[in-house]
Write a structure and sequence with these properties.
- The protein has 666 residues and is an alpha/beta fold.
- The protein is built from 23 helices and 25 strands.
- Helix content is 33%, strand content 17%.
- β11, α13 and β12 form a beta-alpha-beta unit.
- It is globular and about 75 Å long.
- It binds NADP nicotinamide-adenine-dinucleotide phosphate (NAP) and iron/sulfur cluster.
- Iron/sulfur cluster (SF4) binds next to α10.
């Protein structure tokens, strides 16, 4: 992307590192690690950091072990974070988050006893007394945060958590002062702000994260959003942050399929209605986009969370006009949110040091070595980068160009951004003076006779060729061929294998270039209905008109739901996309043969012929490790990482991490 000529003059001091839960909040010595994590970002110029969500009460914890701040003894560990951030002149706000019915435990509470579709626990309806107690608990947490030295708090009022549950009539069926009319439903949020303001005085920052686009049929109307924002300001908030969507709503809001800065128009709509500073957020991942939002007047500040996991130096690099050196967040969620949902510590797929800064400090090796790397897919690139960063002399070869399998991923609609990772490594390798030999297939004899302290094989994978009668028929191609030649693919296609790549290929085949993302997902930028949704009746007409001519079968042998093992935060988007496009997903089958009539299968015991033009093989991969094994036999100091080490269930996150870990071992 071309940087703006204006430079990042507006962006300076207007960047907020948004709340992101790392899991360190709950782990042993986690606050010490969290302090280093925040300090690295504060030192690089972030103006204000918002912590991960901390509950004001036991019932409000996201899980039973989640962090809570409600007692004096808990203040000490928070002081560590404050000290680390203040040492670099940045501000730190504690996010107060009460999960309400999203609490993943049996003690969940909510305005009404209505279970969320994404939780197995039915919440208890709060009594009037308990509601007042929770409001007091918010104020108590804010006071404790003030004691710890925080500059302020962010009150989480969006994404479908407790406050949002009070505001929405779908989750609030109360008939007392806290339910019924809109005025009653926003009473809870306003009382929280007022009680915090009373308790902490005038100077303490209160950011209120306001749900500006619920994407829920019974969400707020635009008029109500404006009314709420004005009252939030009057109640004593210092700033308003933009919240988009509810976690339970099946419309993507932060995944890579969502266009960049897709929701800043919502913030802009509100800007004229309030006088306090407004923060915008969601899918802003580069200084250029952030700057453009500020220049456009969409908001006064920009909040980014995941981009600061991907690159702690984001702001500094932008200010130094080095945005080409930024490690861009590719919005995959794999290293961050998906890990948190599995109860693991968050990190980042493209930056495995994130939240592991103490384990992988940026120190030079005391004993610089000569390292040869064969293969520059993401595993090799990561190893080359970290080895060079640590002061080793790195010589790297690739038989093609840089990027390996990421070059294929870039061709998939919604994954174009994966190019940025290749761009990042390319720029870093050049800066670190790594000797890169492209289009160079290095031979056994050369590596046999070469001197090096270590030779790293990151030679990747090749597509598996399954043993099916007719596999060499002219209609058959593997996924690499299919992705590289997508424009030549005809209308009837069967895909063998429904793993991540089978889904990728299916999405590529059904994607339409002129698709309007908002229309596709039912989002109405004119905000004519509640929740900012398009009229359902209108929408139903659309898919019929736009029906794709292509017939795509996505197939797997296992008798289980297709895409069952796709990632938690993005798998549902991928399944829904294919369902909407009419892809025929079949499981519990075997492959009989491929011939001029098509692909012959036995599906649930019944023989069937799928009359297709192409059969695309997405049946996993095999390791490219022959050279590694030959050199190992003659005693060369070889190492193997990524797909060359283990092709089964290989993913980019593991490959990049393996590259880094090995580089730290030299
Ligand atoms: P995969 O996830 O292992 O899937 C392979 C598919 O091929 C399975 O559906 C399997 O199902 C089928 N299969 C395996 N052996 C077969 C055989 N001999 N004959 C016919 N079918 C066979 O592999 P992948 O799709 O190539 O993905 C590779 C890795 O990249 C995975 O770890 C994946 O997570 C990652 N990836 C992730 C994404 C993402 O968006 N997160 C995207 C792409 C890739 P049956 O055995 O039931 O037929
Ligand atoms: Fe961004 Fe993916 Fe890293 Fe999360 S794991 S911060 S989504 S690149």
């Amino acid at each position: 992307m071309k940087p703006l000529d204006l430079g990042f003059t507006v962006l300076k001091n207007r960047t907020i590192m948004g709340s992101i839960h790392t899991g360190l909040e709950e782990s042993w010595f986690g606050f010490d690690k969290l302090a280093v994590f925040y300090a690295e970002r504060a030192q690089a110029g972030v103006a204000l950091i918002v912590t991960g969500g901390i509950s004001p009460t036991f019932s409000g914890r996201l899980s039973l072990i989640s962090s809570q701040l409600s007692s004096l003894f808990q203040v000490a560990k928070h002081k560590k974070l404050v000290k680390a951030v203040h040492a670099h002149d940045a501000k730190l706000c504690l996010q107060i988050l009460h999960a309400g019915r999203y609490a993943y435990h049996p003690f969940a509470v909510a305005p009404s006893a209505i279970q969320s579709p994404i939780s197995p626990f039915k919440p208890k309806a709060l009594t009037d007394k308990k509601i007042k107690k929770i409001i007091k608990a918010y104020a108590r947490t804010a006071v404790l945060a003030q004691k710890a030295g925080y500059d302020g708090v962010e009150v989480m009022g969006s994404e479908g958590y407790l406050i949002n549950q009070f505001i929405c009539s779908h989750t609030n069926k109360r008939e007392d002062d806290w339910g019924g009319s809109f005025e009653n439903r926003i009473r809870f949020s306003l009382e929280i702000i007022r009680s915090i303001r009373r308790a902490v005085g005038d100077k303490f920052i209160i950011i209120y994260r306001l749900s500006m686009l619920d994407l829920h049929e019974q969400g707020s109307s635009w008029q109500e959003i404006e009314q709420h924002a004005k009252e939030v300001e009057s109640a004593g908030a210092t700033m308003i942050n933009t919240g988009i969507g509810w976690h339970e709503v099946r419309i993507p809001t932060i995944a890579s399929v969502v266009p960049e800065a897709a929701f800043t128009w919502v913030s802009k709509n509100l800007k004229q209605s309030i006088t306090i500073p407004l923060i915008t957020s969601n899918r802003i991942n580069s200084p250029e986009i952030a700057e453009r939002c500020l220049q456009n007047g969409d908001a006064d500040m920009v909040s980014m969370a995941r981009p600061f996991l991907a690159d702690s130096q984001f702001v500094k690099k932008a200010m130094d006009n080095q945005s080409h050196l930024i490690n861009t967040c590719i919005a995959c969620n794999q290293g961050c949110l998906d890990r948190v949902f599995k109860g693991k510590r968050a990190t980042c797929l493209v930056n495995p040091r994130a939240a592991y800064e103490t384990e992988f400090p940026l120190l030079k090796s005391a004993d610089p070595k000569t390292i040869i790397i064969v293969g520059l897919g993401v595993a090799g690139l990561s190893c080359a980068y970290y080895a060079a960063l640590r002061g080793h002399h790195v010589i790297a070869y690739d038989a093609k160009n840089l990027g390996g399998q990421f070059n294929l991923a870039c061709e998939i609609p919604g994954k174009e951004i994966y190019h940025e990772t290749i761009r990042y490594y390319e720029a870093q390798l050049s800066l670190l003076k790594v000797e890169v030999h492209r289009n160079t297939k290095v031979k056994f004899e050369e590596l046999r006779d070469i001197y090096a302290d270590a030779i790293v094989f990151a030679t990747g994978v090749s597509p598996r060729k399954p043993d099916i009668d007719g596999i060499d028929h002219f209609s058959v191609m593997d996924y690499e061929e299919a992705i590289k030649n997508k424009s030549t693919i005809k209308n009837k296609v069967a895909i063998i294998g429904a793993g991540g790549i089978g889904f990728d290929v299916a999405e590529m085949l059904v994607a339409k270039e002129d698709d309007d993302w908002y229309e596709q997902w039912g989002v109405d930028k004119a905000y004519r209905n509640r929740g900012g949704l398009l009229d359902k009746v209108e929408q139903k007409k659309k898919p019929l008109e736009a029906q794709d001519k292509r017939t795509v079968y996505l197939l797997q042998r296992k008798d289980e739901k297709l895409g069952k093992n796709l990632a938690r935060t993005t798998g549902w988007i991928r399944r829904l996309t294919l369902r909407k496009a009419g892809v025929k997903m079949l499981s519990d089958l075997s492959y009989d043969k491929i011939d001029d009539y098509g692909l012959h299968i036995v599906h649930k015991g019944v023989s069937e012929t799928l009359a297709v033009d192409h059969v695309i093989i997405c049946a996993g991969q095999v390791s490219e490790d022959a050279l590694y094994k030959r050199l190992r036999e003659i005693g060369q100091p070889v190492h193997v990482i990524g797909g060359a080490k283990k092709a089964a269930e290989l993913d980019a996150e593991t490959a990049i991490k393996e590259g880094m870990v090995l580089a730290y071992n030299f």
